[in-house]
Structure formats: structure tokens, C-alpha cells
Amino acid sequence: MKQYIVQTKRPDGGINLSFDTAADIIEMVGHQDCTGCEYKVLMLDESGNIIGLGYVPSTKAPYNRHRFARKDTGEIEIDGYSTEH
Fold first, then answer.
1. pLDDT digits (tens, 9 = 90+) for 48-81
2. ∠ CA(25), CA(29), CA(31), 5° rounding?
3. What is the spatial distance between Cα 65 and Cα 67, in angstroms, rounded to a whole number?
């Protein structure tokens, strides 16, 4: 299962790094309004280079769809729906 590098900035200013799956990231971002955390997502390409992923916000319903695109190609890397809450 593919994992991504996630930097989490908590509301208290603390920063954590973790390795998470796409499903985990989608749930974290889906609950961002409750946690107040900010996320930066990175991936490793086939050559081992670190590639940033940019969040692509939903501009219309359903708003619980979360997508991340590769910053180098614009290709959607992560796409899914978080749990409604």
C-alpha cells in the first residue's frame, strides 16, 4: 500500500511528520475543520525524488471530496471522499 509523507501543523504550533495512506490523508483533511490542523503532503516518485502535492478544493457539492495533485505534473495523485460529520 502506497504511503505519503505528511507534515501536520497543530493549532498549538507543534509540527509532526508521519507516513500515511491516501485514505488516512483524506480523513485527516476531511476533519480539518474540527482539528484546526494544517497539512502538507509529499510523495516519492519512481526515482526517489520528493514531489509536493497541492490540495485541490471542491468548489461545489459534495464538499467532502478531497483531491491532491502533483505539483510537478498537475496529475491527480489522491482522490476520495471523507466521512460526513
1. 999 999 999 999 999 999 999 999 999 999 999 9
2. 120
3. 7
Contact 66, 81 (CB under 8 A): yes
The pLDDT of residue 36 is 96
User: What are the tens digits of pLDDT across the range 22-51?
Assistant: 999 999 999 999 999 999 999 999 899 999
**The CA-based dihedral angle spanning residues 84, 19, 51, 60, taken in that order and rounded to the nearest 10 degrees:** 0
Bridge pairing between strands 50-56 and 15-20: unpaired
Q: What are the distances in angstroms from CA 30 to CA 26, 40, 46, 74?
A: 6, 14, 28, 22
What is the full DSSP assignment across 29-46? HHTHHHH--EEEEEEE-T
Residue 70 and residue 43 in contact, taking contact as beta carbons nearer than 8 Å: yes
